[in-house]
Design brief:
Layout: H1 2-37, E1 43-49, E2 52-58, E3 75-76, H2 81-94, H3 124-128, H4 139-145, H5 156-164, H6 179-193, H7 197-206, E4 227-228, E5 234-235, H8 244-247, E6 250-251, H9 253-263, H10 269-277, E7 282-284, E8 287-289, E9 294-297, E10 302-309, E11 314-320, E12 325-331, H11 336-349
Antiparallel strand pairs: 1-2, 1-12, 3-6, 4-5, 7-8, 9-10, 10-11, 11-12
Family: Belongs to the beta-lactamase family.
Organism: Flavobacterium pectinovorum
Keywords: Hydrolase, Signal
Length: about 350
């Protein structure tokens, strides 16, 4: 009887190992095929399943470099930063620093003076689920002013003027993607903790998760990739400023897999906060949102995901809590089509 049990355990172990190898082989094949079709787009991918990690990458750090992109190469994670910010908001809620249903009025810096029509109207969860109705930054205009560093023209005064001059919310309660909403979330965090956003994210996510290569203000490192705009031109990494909570963190596949591991573990502080962000705060037609994260439900499974596009790079993160896997895809060119197609192919052909 003991021999049979041991034999069964051994068979299960071999089967699990073979299954894992099969998944990673298929993922690598998909990524390699994409690189062969798009040799000018460097890529780094990290995958985790049941705490086992897998990485693959293709391309060079830049056109002149002989150095290969690898799992430690630094990319802009762009709007994936938003799920870090909402994780911090959820942590603050769990610490009773705030309530998600609280109105934002008393949490904003004193420079903001909300119009009477806006008072006791916008909740913290509205900011985090893109339904506040507040006006947003005019990116098209900013790009015209400075195509390499468009955010450089956004200041505290810019934001306070924009908010203070708002007399009516546009489509409150309806989805409208918002950079300013997440900038305000960063300022709310700064007020409740009495520290800078940079200090908060380091103290509550970067350091405890041991994300040793996740960068904020200083990203002048040798293993940094070079960004490329949709036309293939070189694009600078965007410098840290007041809008950072909405999309200016830099990281790599290794650290983002560490983050995935943390959020998939319900016992970690980050994992407990992630469960809060995964609750549905907006659902209309085929769009369902948690706090900063998209929820993709079907009859078989639930995927949580967030994409990001900087001026010169694209990325996407996705995880399945029920099946305990997650993936991060990082591209050194702004190409939302490639990153979305890669995720769709992997989830449909490999992870179903």
């Amino acid at each position: 009887m003991k021999t049979s049990v041991k034999l069964l355990a051994a068979v299960l172990l071999v089967s699990t190992f073979s299954f894992g190898q099969d998944i990673t082989r298929k993922i690598d094949s998909i990524i390699k095929d994409n690189y062969q079709k798009n040799p000018n787009v460097g890529i780094s991918v990290g995958f985790i399943q049941n705490n086992k990690e897998f990485y693959t990458s293709y391309g060079k750090l830049n056109a002149e470099s002989k150095t290969e992109i690898n799992k430690n190469s630094i990319f802009e994670i762009a709007s994936i930063t938003k799920i870090l910010t909402t994780n911090l908001i959820a942590q603050a809620a769990l610490e009773n620093k705030l309530k998600l249903e609280d109105y934002i009025d008393n949490y904003l810096p004193k420079e903001y003076v909300l119009n009477e029509n806006l008072k006791n109207k916008i909740r913290i969860s509205d900011l985090a689920s893109h339904q506040s109705g507040l006006p947003d930054i005019d990116f098209a205009k900013l790009i015209e002013l400075n195509p390499q560093q468009p955010i450089s023209n956004v200041t505290e005064q810019t934001l306070t003027t924009l908010i203070n001059n708002c007399t009516e919310l546009k489509d409150y309660g309806k989805y409208r993607y918002s950079t300013i909403g997440f900038t305000l979330l960063g300022q709310i965090l700064e007020k409740v903790y009495g520290k800078s956003y940079d200090e908060i994210i380091r103290e509550k996510i970067i350091n405890p998760v041991h994300m040793t290569h996740t960068l904020t203000e200083d990203f002048d490192v040798k293993n940094r990739t070079v960004g490329h705009n949709p036309d293939g031109g070189i694009q600078e990494f965007i410098k840290w400023n007041i809008t950072s909570p909405a999309g200016l963190v830099k990281s790599n596949a290794t650290d983002m897999v560490k983050y995935l591991k943390a959020i998939l573990n319900k016992e970690t502080t980050v994992g407990k906060a992630a469960l809060v962000t995964e609750k549905t705060f907006y659902k209309v037609d085929n769009r369902e949102l948690g706090l900063g994260i998209n929820i993709d439900n079907d009859d078989k499974t639930t995927l949580y995901m967030k994409s990001g596009d900087s001026m010169g790079q694209s990325c996407i993160i996705c995880y399945n809590r029920a099946k305990n896997w997650g993936i991060i895809i990082l591209l050194d060119k702004r190409d939302s089509k490639i990153r979305s197609n890669l995720l769709d192919t992997i989830t449909e052909k490999v992870m179903q």
